[in-house]
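Researcher: Next entry in the queue.
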Amino acid sequence: MDGVMMSERPRRRQKAPRKGNPRNNVKQKAQELTRSGMPFQMAMAVAQGRMELNEALERLARRAEVDRLVRKHGLSRSLATQVAMGHADLEAYLAKQRMENHLQEYLQHSCLDQSLRLEQPWVFGLHGQRRVEAAVTSNDAYTVMLSGKEGEQEVHKLQFKYGYLPDAWKKVRKSLKKDKALASSPREPITRPQDRYSCSDKRLFRYMDEETMIDVTLLEGEIFRGQVSWFGRFEFGLQLKGGVEVVIFRHALHRIAAV
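Model: Structure for this entry, 259 residues:
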């Protein structure tokens, strides 16, 4: 009897294996992504399917590039982000920054002030095909007082075309060329700024930054070939072959051409 009853007892059903908890799976996947370096919130978005993995990786790469640009170039995060996204030109920004830094240093730089400060004579090319060696003894808004072998003379600043140190004369003479047409009919200074040859700071900076060789022709035909070494509001330096520098007065320009 007991045997019969025991045989008739229903067998226990085997429990089906439990399915994994979806929440646990999402959390596990997010933890794996976090361990690989992904921020937790982003990892959760990927694990939950709210963000594609490729998109997350692109964002991480862009964030790393932004950090690099900020550290290397001192950019603001907003500008660095624009650069990293391709919406801003890094080279153009850096060039503009270099030009601004240069002008901060050289905007008021002048060989006239240098001669006055050091009491040092310079050779100055003046209109009328004149060349004088003299030191500047006073430098006013419109005129300069020169003191040299010819005594003292007051010269209007528009009369100045170029200047250089006396010991550079041989190398300057060797480099100096002439435009015969201009030299045969000397021109007076151009008094109105709007009538003068226009050469912007941006253009001079590009020549300097790219180390471009240029020909500089003055109103009375002098031609100097060299590279811009600095530029300011009224003058710029031109490095000639042989390592000597000639300072060019911007109001005396006839033309500038890259060679």
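Model: The CA atoms of residues 172 and 244 lie 7 Å apart.
Researcher: Noted, moving on.
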